[in-house]
Amino acid sequence: MLKKAMKVMVQTAAAAFPFDLQRFNGEGATLSTELTGLIPEETASEIVKDVVRGSAIMKLADLEPMTSATKKIPVLLDGPGAYWVGEGERIKTSKATWAQVTLNAKKLAVIVPMSKEALTRPSIDVFEELKPYIAEAFYTKLDAAAFIGTESPFATNILTAAVNSGNTFTRGSVAGQNLADDVNSVMALIEADDQEPRAFAAHFGLKSSLRGLKNSQGDPLYLTSVRDGVAEDSLYSLPIEYCRNGAWDKTKADLIAGDFKKAKVGILQQIEYEILKEATLHTISAADGKPLSLAEQDMVALKATFQVAFLVVKENAFGVLRPAGYTP
What we know:
There is one protein chain. The protein has two domains: 7-75 and 97-152 and 263-312, Major capsid protein gp5 fold; 161-261 and 313-322, hypothetical protein PF0899 fold (2-Layer Sandwich), CATH 3.30.2320.10. It has helices at 41-54, 56-60, 123-148, 158-164, 179-192, 207-211, and strands spanning 7-11, 16-20, 36-38, 62-66, 70-78, 97-104, 106-115, 168-170, 199-203, 222-227, 230-235, 238-243, 255-258, 263-276, 280-285, 291-293, 299-312, 318-322. Helix content is 22%, strand content 36%. The chain is of the alpha+beta class. The protein is built from six helices and 18 strands.
C-alpha cells in the first residue's frame, strides 16, 4: 500500500479527471517492465464500449469497424426508382447513386501523470483504474470535433455541413414562434432538401426548455420512455441525445437535427499506451503554475492513444438551431 493517496489528473485540451492511485493493488506484470504496448484486449474493448455509451455522436451515427487507419466504404446517396409497367412494355431501368468514401482514422491521445510508484503496481490494475477517465476524455474530444468541429482533425463536421447547406435557423428569430416551432423550422429546412430528420442532438442545458413543449392540443411533444432499463428521450417522436460532457459549444448551436446515419464513425479497437518519464507536459500546470515536468516532480505519465475516424456523407441531411441572438 502507498503511505498516502496520490491524486493525479487525466488531462486533455478540454478537461481533467481525478482518480486515486491508492486503489492500485494486486499481482501480475508491471508497467516498469512494459513501457510501451497495447492495453489488454479485454480492457481496451471495455474502454471502447464506454466511449460508445458516453458519446452522443456514436449513439446516433453509423458505426464502422476498422482494422487499419484507412477504410474505403460504398455509400448509397440516392436509391433506384420504380416504374409502372404496362402489358408488353419493356421494363425501364434506373441507377442508384453510389459514392466511394474513405474513412481516415486520426490519433486521439490522453496523458495521465502519476507517481513513479504506479510502475511497480500490476499493469492490469492501473489500466482498470484509469478506464473510465480515459473513455471520458476520448468521447468528450470526439463529440466536440464531430458535432461542432472544435479542435477537429477531420475534414468534416455536422455543424459545418448544416451551414454549408443553408439549413440554419436562429431561435426566436420569428415573432410569435416558440421553441417547438423553431425546432420544426429546422426540420422543415432539411425536408425541403428531400431529406428526413431522424434524430436530434443538443446540449444538456436545453433539456429543461424542451421538456415542457406541447402541441396545439396540449399534448406533450417531449416524451421519456424506458427500454431495457435505459431512459430514452424523444421530441416530435424522434430520439434525442444530449452532450453531457462539456463537448458542446452553446454559443454556436442549441440543437442539431438530421439523418445521423448520413455520418460515419470508424473505430479501431486497439488502444496503445506508452510510459513517459522525461516529458514536460505543457497542458498541465504544477503547483507553481509552470508546465509539469515529470523528472522534476519525480513522476511518470501514461499516454493512451485511440484511433477514430469521422465523416459526414451527405451535408444537406443536417440542420442547426442557432442560439437566440446568434450573429456569425
